[in-house]
Amino acid sequence: MIKLQDVSYVRLGTRDLEGATHFATDFLGLEVSERAKGTVYFKSDEREHTLCYFEGDPAEQAAGFEIAERDDLSSAAAQLEKLGHDVHAGTPEEAAARKVRDFIAFKDPSGNRIELLWRPAYSGKRYHGMRDAGITGFSHIGLCTTNVARDEAFWTQVCNARVSDRIGDAPLLRIDEIHHTIAMFPAAHPGIQHINHQVESGDDVMRSFRFLTERQVPMVFGPGRHPSSSAKFLYFEGPDGMVFEYSSGVRSIADELLYRERQLSFDPAGFCEWGSKPEIPEFQK
Ligand SMILES: [Fe+2]
Q: What is the structure's pLDDT at 130?
């Protein structure tokens, strides 16, 4: 069993590093933690970085998950190879570029590049966003799946994720008490489907709705409230078509024994209890 501790970062290729940096700082509200050749690192919480844009093909994406022990990397690699996944052992240079001590990389059954990492860097320097978006931290990702049942089995049987709720057949998966850290959405292709940052309050969601609308950032869903996690949310489009989300008030599942997963409908009402309708292809039938 691969024991995922947390989602640590997302890495995104872009042809327009300056444009992506402008969006990530002036619109999304992240802080540049470091600029290196062809790479910009962004901070959203106490960690050294939680988002990295690098010069490259926007199809080059990776999501990094922290594991607890270095030995877990070798046992995970052995388990993944046994299941037929090609596993890449990170070089010291690649680990340094991710600000981790060690990592391995592989593709999940849909073809999403996943990195398992050990000892990500934390920073003593407090996160201070370029605008006051109220961000409290990077929290979860949406992942495209080309076969929901197969991928749910991968994340829940090979890894330690558990189903919190389902929207249609799409599972919202938790790896700790937070309602979901990975949200799976059926698609014809792999890819990171959305990137979530938590904000302090519903007021922050509404402030950003106004701020981003005035600046012609395309709104793709919300403001609304998820019946699954109970979070108030806003989804909007960033560079290279990537969807970003702010949300506040995500449910915490403190008692595993008392919690039962729920089935929600794969329609606008299953995604939003305020009546907002998604303009996100993966959220539509
Ligand atoms: Fe989300």
A: 87
- CA of 52 relative to ligand 1 center, distance in Å: 19
What separation in Å is there between the alpha carbon of 37 and the centre of ligand 1?
A: 31
- Ligand 1 center to residue 183 CA distance, Å? 7
Query: Cα–Cα distance between 249 and 198 in angstroms, integer?
Result: 8
Quick one: which of 96, 92, 91, 100 has its CA closest to 122? 100
Find how far residue 260's CA is from the centre of its chain.
24
Domain 135-279 fold = 2,3-Dihydroxybiphenyl 1,2-Dioxygenase; domain 1 (3.10.180)
Q: How far is the CA of 122 from the centre of ligand 1 (A)?
A: 24
CA of 140 to the centre of ligand 1 (A): 7
Contact 119, 67 (CB under 8 A): no
The pTM assigned to this predicted structure is 0.97
- Are both 6-118 and 135-279 of the same fold? yes
Q: Extract the residue ranges of the chain whose pLDDT is less than 70.
A: none
State whether CATH 3.10.180.10 applies to domain 6-118.
Answer: yes
Beta-carbon contacts of 7 under 8 Å, excluding residues fewer than 6 positions away, are: 63, 64, 65, 66, 138, 139, 140, 141, 181, 182
